[in-house]
Write a structure and sequence with these properties.
YqcC-like_sf, mainly alpha, YqcC-like_dom, UCP006257, de novo design (two linked rop proteins), YqcC family protein
Length: 105
């Protein structure tokens, strides 16, 4: 069942963001969260978008048994956003797994 596996990926993603010190303790403003730019790149860092937009929206789809996206490409954005970050290999690999899993559905 893709919803169960996706839920597991979201748990792993939260854990990886926390382990990488990319989990935020403060919620961005409503204006920042309302951005319509891809990945809210004009108002949020990529890890904030993952935490405050991607994970909650995917959680809602799972909760409501709605179709999951099948055209998803998180990895290229992660590689671009974190190019000057420390070693985030495990986090990028997890995003690649999520991309591949959802694209195959």
């Amino acid at each position: 069942m893709p919803h169960i596996q996706t839920a597991q990926y979201l748990i792993q993603l939260e854990q990886q963001l926390k382990q990488s010190d990319l989990w935020s303790g403060s919620i961005p403003s409503d204006t920042a969260l309302a951005s319509t730019a891809p990945f809210a790149c004009d108002s949020l860092r990529f890890e904030q978008w993952l935490q405050f937009i991607f994970i909650p929206k995917m959680g809602q789809l799972i909760e409501q048994s709605l179709p999951l996206p099948t055209q998803i490409s998180l990895t290229p954005m992660a590689e671009q956003a974190w190019v000057n970050h420390g070693d985030l290999t495990a986090l990028v690999e997890l995003l690649t797994q999520i991309d591949n899993f959802l694209t195959r559905q």
